[in-house]
Protein 1
Amino acid sequence: MKLLKIHTLDKGWHDRDEVLLYAAFQILVDFVEQEHPDKLIDWNATEEHRRVWKEMRSLYRWWTKIRPARHSPLNDKQLAVPPLRFQKIPDSEMYEMVEPDRKKYAAYYRALKKHGQLEQKWYEEDQRNLHRLIEIRGHLWT
């Protein structure tokens, strides 16, 4: 039995849907980089082989080059991030978060909104590419 080490997943807790995505693409990366299918398989043997090899290279390039280049506006070092502050709720042992000044941190809230839109777009892109990978999984052998 071979252990799958997911090199691109940061340490710490991750929801299973994210682990599934990263595991599937780690299998593709391991296949391309360790099994060297470009040297062991005649990808020009049939039209199907050519199509699958093109798809495999496209997915590999997306996972290793394009996806890691994603940039969230929240990662901007110049962005002023509001402090996380709490205040005690009167007559209680509980605390509540103090809402930051939205005018003072307007750029942060714009970046937060843009980040949310990008996250949705990226999720859909991840989903499409995971489906593409599943479609060619029968060719991941040497």
Note: Helices lie at 16-34, 37-40, 47-66, 106-135.
Protein 2
Amino acid sequence: MTAIVTDIEGTTSSIAFVKHVLFPYARRRLPDFVRLHAARADVAPLVEEVRSLAGDLDTDGVIRTLLGWIDEDRKVPPLKQLQGMIWAEGYAEAAYRGHVYRDAAAALRRWHAAGVALYVYSSGSVEAQQLLFAHSEAGDLASVFSGYFDTRIGAKTEVSSYRAIASKLGGNPARILFLSDQRRELDAAAAAGLRTVLVCRDGAPLEAAGHPVVTSFDGIDIAGAMLA
């Protein structure tokens, strides 16, 4: 096996944590964060990227646009980068800890100890991914991962994104296993030649034509998935 690539929301971590903890926190803090840091070296380019996408806006207009994107659950790179910066403050202040299912934490540590290369692919920014795992309820899990991918490599429902990931990993796509709770993502990964497993948690529907289905990481047979 070359690698395992995992989604976060609904796969390693609860959708509720992202929806009811992280997103509201970022939404509350975003206006003040942008006003205070709009000229900061790492924030200014993101503000300009918002303007390039939404028009020649003043600071309040940029904030309104970003809040609208949050409400629409838009996967826009500058928004994701800003959310990551705000979440970093929350983790640093111990306002919350990153949720990771116990079975996922145990499996990730077990696979890492066995020498399997682990990667994350999520619509949240790489920085946000690293923060969640570094400050998880299960302890620091960031060290088990060899790398992270976000939407800068492409949308998660596009076949080309998974081809790009396979190329980055330098391996045969058939030796890469992708884990997700979203069938469209798995369909795209499979079309790129990756192996797939659908993770159905919290009573989610178990139907996923063409993809093995598990209800926890305990049900993932690495060898079987790679040989299927």
Note: The chain has two domains: 3-14+97-227, 17-92.
Protein 3
Amino acid sequence: MNGLVILAATIGATSQFTSVYIGRSTLLTLAATVVLAGLLIARFRANYVIAPPSQWAVLKSARLDTFARQAETLLANQRIAQPAFFTALLWTTNVSLILILFKTILPDIHFGVLDAITLQVIAALAIALPASPAGLGVFEAGIVAYLTTMHGVQTERAISAALAYHLSITAPHTAIVIAFFASMLPGLLRARLWP
């Protein structure tokens, strides 16, 4: 549910509908973030000074009281502060990587933070699809579709940018695994050759 809310807010913030202004959708995204942060803070207070969020009239009128009740249950039964912090840190790092990479690769297009967040969500959804190992092909297709439709980038440039991005996020993991196996290789060879 939370992922759908974040995805909807991100798409709304980066859409170019004539009836929706970027400024308003950014404010709506910020308001949703403040509400979720408020729920998180309310969880850590021993006693509510005010009614729990699921009882707030504004959330009931917006039919968000079920969502607030689920968030309260999640926050009450689990310790999520540390994982939430590390998740936010990881996403912030990835969004920064995307922003720097695409501003470097495609300097002629206006590529902002909301574009980077959108590409991060597309990448996460593409990798989550069990279509191919590491989302190869699906990953690039999502990024190419976004770059060609939203920014008018030529297909070839969009494909090369998507491949460069995929390489930039897989190269560190690959290097770590290769270094790990390289460090274990002498011991394995000694065990095989001199038992």
Note: The chain has two domains: 2-78, 83-193.
